[in-house]
Amino acid sequence: MNLTFREAMLTFKRAPLLSVLSVTTIAFSLFVLGLFGLVVVNLQDALHNVEERVEVVAYLLPGAPIEATAQALKDIEAFPEVQSATYVSEDDALVRARAELVELRDVMQELERNPLPASIEVKLKPGFRDTDHVSAVAERLRGFGFVDDVRFGRDWVEKLDRLRGLAAAVGIVVGAAFAVVAIIIIGTTIRMAVLQRSREIAIMRLVGATDGFIRRPFLLQGAIKGLLGGAVAIGLSFAAYLLINRYLLQSAFFTQEQAAAIVVFGALIGLLGSATSVGRHLKRV
Amino acid sequence: MIKFTNVFKAFPKGGLALKDVSFHVAKGEFAFLTGHSGAGKSTVMKLIYAEERPTSGDVRVSGYNVNEMRPREVPLLRRRLGIVFQDFRLLEDRTSEENVAFALEVTGARSSTIPARVMRVLTQVGLAAKAQAYPRELSGGEQQRVAIARALVNEPTVLLADEPTGNLDERATRGVFQLLRDINASGTAVVMATHDLDLVRQAPYRVIELQEGALVYDSAVDEARDQAAAP
């Protein structure tokens, strides 16, 4: 193990330029992947915010009995899809309308009678904010005798559904493409490092080194390069994130786990790239 | 020790590199392998250190059957052999000492024993004073001595030398050849491929000659026959 580590480190010392080049190449490949990752993360955030606003509103008939409404509220909260159900009285509705609809404030002031109905606003749990579940909940709300009408913006929820599907598909396809490109570039870089030492590999074999012995320093070295490249990529992505935040728009960065995953991904590609190129090389020599 | 029985070796693109070659090199023997370039000397060497496998026939080296060897056994065979080449094959970015130590390290030798063993073989080849020198700082003869030290450090039973003096001037050639004779005198078998006939004539060793892949002369066999035929 000691020897493996020493041999792996020797490469960095002996071929500093090629090593820096490898790390830089890996860093930029992962940086591109990271930028795409940032777009995905932020898109998901945005979608999530929009989703939060999905709600079903049940308007109540005038004079619905208070006790029945209170009981209904409990029943609705017990639905498996429901996160919360809030009762909005006629007066509350008016106060809210006055605050929100500034243009109509004067009209509101002059009203003799409150025209707004009381309602129950139902928010759904994450994972249930799609057309099917929303419709099902709306249908059940209609079943209550004192409910006049139920609204939830069907078109809007359907659009959200489609957007979600599209984002997932694009994310997977483009992400996979970026990942494949990164793997190919990194594999090629690592391969150069292996080819550079082909003479040495041949000599090692002549003096009786086992394939495993020859392979180990390369694997370690590949993993270290990948790790460094991943770390640099996260640094670059963070710089990009700061710039975007300052000059373009408020955005989100990776969580610590996501950042760690990118670094680990780099190390893994480095390891795999080394394994395949050394393996191929050992077969040929 | 090394036994070839009816060995044929085909070139990958057709044609035969070796045609029905049989010989036996005993423990502690010194044998020259001669012939023009392309006669098959290097192929014989490669078969001995299991870089190639025979197309047909039987190659046995130091208890291993090269025909049926598993790839993972090849390094084990090579640790019992010392191999020296015309072009030295030293690692340019390591000192003499490190080049020799490398051969021990790859076999998993205990690191505490390595420096003493390295110095012993460097002393044996007369290069103890240049242990810290890099190959580019050494003459051709000295580089070949480092390569020989590297071949000896694992205490091989056979030393294979493929044109070891091919790149050396006359004086260095004599020195390296004498070194190989000394090594042989201490009990290690030596197989030396060469086309330097002056060298071959200098010493009373066995000569195996190849021509276009066929064994055309083996002094051990032919002299025995001549003696038997003499009145």
Task: Give a topology summary.
The complex is a heterodimer of chains A (285) and B (231).
Chain A (H helix, E strand, L loop, with lengths): L1 H13 L1 H37 L2 E6 L5 H12 L4 E7 L1 H11 L4 H6 L8 E6 L6 H12 L4 E5 L2 H43 L1 H9 L4 H37 L8 H29 L1
Antiparallel strand pairs in A: 1-3, 1-4, 2-3
Helix pairs in contact in A: 1-2, 1-9, 2-7, 2-9, 7-10, 9-10
Chain B lengths: L1 E9 L5 E10 L4 E5 L6 H8 L7 E6 L2 E2 L8 H6 L1 E5 L10 H10 L8 H11 L15 H13 L5 E5 L7 H16 L3 E5 L3 H6 L3 E6 L2 E5 H11 L2
Parallel strand pairs in B: 3-8, 3-9, 6-7, 7-8
Antiparallel strand pairs in B: 1-2, 1-4, 4-5, 9-10
Can you give me a brief rundown of this structure?
The complex is a heterodimer of chains A (285) and B (231). With 285 residues, chain A is α+β, with helices and mostly antiparallel strands.
Architecture overview:
Chain A is α+β, with helices and mostly antiparallel strands and 285 residues long. Chain A has helices at residues 2-14, 16-52, 66-77, 90-100, 105-110, 131-142, 154-196, 198-206, 211-247, 256-284; strands at 55-60, 82-88, 119-124, 147-151. The longest helix of chain A is centred in the middle third of the chain and has 43 residues, at 154-196. The two termini of chain A are 25 Å apart. The model of chain A has no long low-confidence stretch (mean pLDDT 83). With 231 residues, chain B is of the alpha/beta class. Chain B has helices spanning 41-48, 74-79, 96-105, 114-124, 140-152, 170-185, 197-202, 219-229, and strands at 2-10, 16-25, 30-34, 56-61, 64-65, 81-85, 158-162, 189-193, 206-211, 214-218. Chain B is 35% helix and 25% strand. In chain B, helix 3 crosses helix 4, helix 3 (96-105) packs parallel to helix 5 and helix 5 (140-152) runs parallel beside helix 6 (170-185). In chain B, strand 9 (206-211) and strand 10 (214-218) form a beta hairpin. The A-B interface holds A 2-3, 14, 199-200, 202-211, 213 and B 49, 71-72, 75-79, 83, 89-91, 93, 102-103, 105-108, 111, 150, 154.
